[in-house]
Amino acid sequence: MNNSQFLHDRTGRIPPTDAQSTEYGKASGVPSRDFWVVFAACFLGLICCFLLIVAVSEHNTRRWRKRFAKDEELALVKPSNNLSCAQREVFRGSRYGISFAFHVDLAWRGALVTFFCAATYDANCLNWWQRQGWSMSYVVVIVVFTLYKDLGSTVVLAWTGFYGTLLPVLNCWLIFYLFPDGVKTAETWTKVFGWVDFLVFVLLMFGLGFATNGKMYALSWQAYFSMCFLNPFDQTLFSQGLDVQLHAAETSALTGTIIGCIFALLVAAWMNISALRKAQHMMLDLTWSHGRLLEQLLEMGCLRMRPQAASVFAVEVQSLQQQLLEIRGLLKSSWWECFDLGAAGQSRLMLLQMCHNLDFLIGWLESMVMAVQHAKLSNPNPALHIFDLEKLRELIESTREALQQSCQAAVQGISWDAEEESHLEFWLSALEDAQMKAHEALKAKFMHQGSWQRLFTLAHLP
Description:
Layout lengths: L2 H9 L6 H5 L10 H38 L14 H6 L2 H4 L1 H22 L7 H5 L4 H11 L4 H28 L8 H21 L4 H19 L18 H23 L3 H25 L7 H27 L1 H4 L3 H37 L10 H24 L5 H29 L5 H4 L7
Helix pairs in contact: 3-12, 3-16, 6-8, 6-12, 8-12, 9-11, 9-12, 10-11, 13-14, 13-16, 13-17, 14-16, 16-17, 17-18
């Protein structure tokens, strides 16, 4: 067994048969039939995957409008856990934990794809996949390296894996078009060309700043193609320029990558593990938690807050900050799900703006606790209140309602009708009025003490 046959057997790259070898060797420069087959597979694969991804994100976003229309009080209660039917009924997420149910569900769906790939080796009805020269074991490798915990990350890995395979394949077509027999004939100059081509390819991959996943695929495949090119005893079948052979080693690698990426995207879309959908759920939960913390602050009576309660409150605020950080990461990944198109793209942009606003509101919560603690140090009299509780109650209620109405608009990502828009404008107007009343009340209370400018400014209000 020669080196190339060993590599083919271990990695799934298909060596030529005698029949294929006799039909091979005509580098006419005219695109072959197999070239158009490969081109169509790449083009249609990209278009179909793009449409599938955008359709899934758009469907998820538009479902929110029906959900809010069905239950107008949805924003006023704590959002339910985001569990699929399988995670809820089969894997008992409510009992064993949401994280456990999610990961078991993802592993089970990935295992089904692996089982299908394995079945192509034994099931007669699936032998067609093997007869095309595709190694389904390599497809499994692609699925393992591509499928991740959300659709956006899976799309990124699929795209980088695709171009990471396509680039060395194009280079392979070039070098075997210029030197069809590799180093078997004019060994000296061909060997120099092979080494220079490999070094230039490596430098370009690092110099142009491709993604790490793309570089991994590209350098792995280019090392294999260059090794076969520089090996005078190699008998592997490679395409020559546009005279592409469907059973050639580099074509099998490209088609195997395409099939593996499509399988991974189908699993992610089937499971509906959208990063944007998760960010929408988390934003609803975050706004509810923020409103609940404001209510708890009011119930504690501000200056009556004990040191232990203040510490617990600070931990809750820190938890909100961590949630906000996670939402930002999901929204960054979700660009690959919607590409900022349609209602899903609008929702993503609005949620990014909400993250900026919530940063300020969470900081405002922290400043309120700090102000309370400072006031307790400067005047330990527990009867003194730095807040007018009635004005503070109005401010908190209007902030909570305006924030939750804004979150509903951001999650839906579509224009509201006149009634819904007027409802949001009402709460925004109420929030502005409550801000001014609280500001004037605080200013009047502290102006005579000379500490107004040091303790409070308009920046302390949401």
